């Protein structure tokens, strides 16, 4: 996909990224880039993780936002800035604007997770919820900018923002110079654009691979001159962008070697895996790189791969659901629907088998009325906890061997 790099023809150069690094200095966290032994064993690649979820606002967006804000003159600072964002860019702008004494207004889509709204407001920004999609929020933000003379801080399609995001790649390649592949999430394309410019300037043979959610394959489709249907509630709402940037598209077209798509199950599994293995919380977009690595193992086997955990702002209730669903898919939590006769001792007999198989019962649900069974029949759903899929299968076999009709209730 990528052609020979033409740095001078692109809207952002390696010098721009290096200048951004000098400008933002120590005002952002130089996050660690650490090898994951377990993920390396699982994937067959040498996996290094860049923990951008350890930034103060828990996302990489601080870098580009700060680089942009530092260029404003005194008059622009007094009037203030406006931005549109599903969350992480909002916090990056709000936090840095507050530190620099710049009034900030942030327009966010109505479905934005409440944790991101609250965190943005906590930095002193005025938050306006408008529209169901990022594009509707963007249109309203532009209206406010024109009406009140505010400086619009674009989340991705701005050379200064792109350059700021590229500082991540400079840090990664200083810490781990042997990396030969970077897997980077793509929403509007600001992160991968900046990183590609920086990485290719250090190592022209570096392979840059982008990742998008299957529900929002906007950059993927545009590179192929195809029309994409972008819609749905993706776990990776941070990269759920219908239209990639014009500037970012030009950079991606020149410097990015491939773009892969990942499904919602892949994203959920990656979020759960990072918490269970690395003990780190990431949002769906932040886990997209790992999701791609695990969904396409042969593509990266034997490579030295850098993944950017670009954000950690995930609603706690949503995270709990993701973790429980992942346990269910692994067979460690299950719901079994068992048909019983309406007579004494039936439930006791079932519970005894659970005890014999050393399976923990979490919940029991009886259903006598809303069922198509005869009046003397009933259905009970038992939610239980097992060691693994094999343990669950042994339980089901034992129940069926005792004469019970059993059917697992599967996840969608």
Automatic annotation (TrEMBL):
* Family listed: Belongs to the serine/threonine dehydratase family.
Q: What is the lineage of its organism?
A: Bacteria, Pseudomonadati, Pseudomonadota, Alphaproteobacteria, Sphingomonadales
Q: Which InterPro entries match?
A: ACT-like_dom_sf, ACT_dom, ACT_ThrD-II-like, Ser/Thr_Dehydratase, Thr_deHydtase_catblc, TrpB-like_PALP, TrpB-like_PALP_sf
Required cofactor names:
pyridoxal 5'-phosphate
The entry's protein name is Threonine ammonia-lyase
Q: Which GO terms describe its molecular function?
A: threonine deaminase activity
Q: Which residues form the ACT domain?
A: 335-412
Q: Which NCBIfam families match?
A: ilvA_1Cterm, PRK07334.1
Q: Which reaction does it catalyse?
A: L-serine = pyruvate + NH4(+)
* SUPFAM superfamilies documented for this protein: ACT-like, Tryptophan synthase beta subunit-like PLP-dependent enzymes
């Amino acid at each position: 996909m990528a052609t020979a790099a033409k740095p001078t023809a692109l809207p952002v150069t390696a010098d721009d990224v290096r200048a951004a690094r000098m400008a933002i200095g120590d005002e952002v966290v130089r996050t660690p880039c650490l090898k994951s032994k377990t993920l390396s064993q699982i994937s067959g690649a040498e996996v290094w993780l860049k923990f951008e979820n350890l930034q103060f606002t828990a996302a990489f967006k601080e870098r580009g936002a700060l680089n942009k804000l530092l260029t404003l003159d005194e008059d622009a600072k007094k009037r203030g800035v406006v931005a549109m964002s599903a969350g992480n860019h909002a916090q990056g702008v709000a936090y840095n604007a507050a530190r620099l004494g710049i009034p900030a207004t942030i327009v966010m889509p109505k479905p934005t997770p409440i944790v991101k709204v609250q965190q943005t407001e906590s930095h002193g920004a005025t938050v306006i919820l408008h529209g169901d999609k990022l594009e509707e929020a963007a249109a309203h933000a532009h209206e406010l900018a024109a009406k009140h003379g505010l400086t619009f801080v674009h989340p991705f399609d701005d050379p200064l923002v792109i350059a700021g995001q590229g500082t991540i790649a400079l840090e990664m390649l200083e810490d781990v110079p042997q990396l030969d592949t970077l897997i980077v999430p793509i929403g509007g394309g600001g992160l991968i654009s900046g990183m590609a410019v920086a990485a290719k300037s250090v190592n022209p043979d570096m392979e840059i691979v982008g990742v998008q959610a299957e529900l929002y394959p906007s950059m993927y489709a545009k590179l192929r001159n195809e029309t994409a249907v972008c819609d749905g509630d993706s776990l990776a709402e941070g990269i759920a962008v219908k239209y990639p940037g014009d500037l970012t598209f030009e950079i991606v077209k020149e410097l990015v070697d491939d773009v892969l798509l990942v499904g919602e199950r892949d994203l959920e599994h990656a979020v759960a895996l990072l918490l269970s293995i690395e003990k780190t919380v990431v949002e769906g977009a932040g886990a997209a790189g790992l999701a791609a690595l695990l969904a396409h193992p042969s593509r990266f086997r034997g490579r030295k791969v850098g993944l950017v955990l670009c954000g950690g702002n995930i609603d706690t209730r949503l995270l709990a659901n993701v973790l429980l669903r992942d346990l269910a898919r692994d067979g460690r939590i299950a719901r079994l629907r068992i048909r019983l006769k309406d007579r004494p001792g039936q439930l006791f007999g079932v519970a005894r088998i659970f005890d014999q198989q050393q399976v923990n019962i979490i919940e029991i649900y009886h259903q006598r009325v809303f069922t198509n069974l005869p009046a003397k029949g009933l259905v009970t759903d038992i939610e239980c906890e097992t060691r693994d899929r094999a343990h669950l299968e042994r339980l089901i076999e034992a129940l069926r061997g005792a004469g019970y009709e059993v059917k697992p209730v599967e996840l969608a």
